[in-house]
Write a structure and sequence with these properties.
- This protein is an alpha/beta fold.
- The chain has a single domain (14-169, 187-225, 276-286), classed as 3-Layer(aba) Sandwich (Rossmann fold).
- The protein is 40% helix and 24% strand.
- The chain has 11 helices and 8 strands.
- It has helices spanning 17-23, 26-33, 35-41, 43-53, 70-78, 91-103, 141-151, 170-180, 200-209, 230-240, 250-266, and strands at 60-64, 83-88, 109-113, 126-132, 152-163, 212-227, 268-269, 272-286.
- Helix 2 packs parallel to helix 6 and helix 10 (230-240) crosses helix 11.
- It is globular.
- The two termini are 21 Å apart.
- 43% of the residues are buried.
Length: 287
Amino acid sequence: MSATSSSPTVSVDPANTAQLAAWDGDEGEYWATHAATFDRSIAPHHRRLMAAAAIEPHERVLDIGCGTGETTRDAARAATAGSALGVDLSSLMLEYARRRAAEEGVRNAEFAQVDAQIHPFDPASFDVAISRTAVMFFGDLAAGLANVGRALRPDGRVALLTWQPRAANEWIGAISVALAAGREMSGPPPDTGPFSLSDPARVRALLATAGFTAIELDAVNEGMWFGADAEAATDFVIGLMHWMLDGLDETGRERARAGLRAAMDEHETADGVIFESGAWIIRASRL
């Protein structure tokens, strides 16, 4: 493997400069601090992804956008005689990932701070690549997926978790409406950001262009957990989406929080605050 450790200077494609600033800055710090909540929130989707990856004991796994490393650690546990490399732009999340791997005794997992869109991985050095809600943040999806493909051996495979369109994810709608606090706010274009791989036709076209075949998308719908109760969930989301409050005066901020709290109240259950979410499990093989 050509990537082995984090570096204070990360080479990124210009298209990913903003991603580096966010994930190696305040946003990455928030995710690292609240890693347990993020992992629990997506746990049902995580189990589906790992089942789809079907990692064998001797395989070498590349985890793209590994964040705080749950996917990498679970991949390493499955690859008992192999290895897993998790890559991400966030030094703080990678620090957390390394610490957890050490605490859990996962010795065949490594982590590197690199831009997976351009990093020169050793060609054909991995058997499988996985990614949990991360590949859709490539600034250049075609280039990023092609680079991942080059890192895979012939007949190697990918297993990706991406979001279905916004309409299938009630959590993003409820949060956006509440924090807008009556303002007209336009979201990102549908072909960018978290929903950039929500269109199956686009997914198939991008993967085919990147050198993949046998492309399959399975729709999965699961509950996402946002906190033990409405107050905890409100605090968690405010911390995550605080930028949506920019430009509001104190009255507006109070109105936004009240609206968000009401949405959380509506979704509070005996198991915590749960919103419906729709994702794609994407599988494909390298030519």
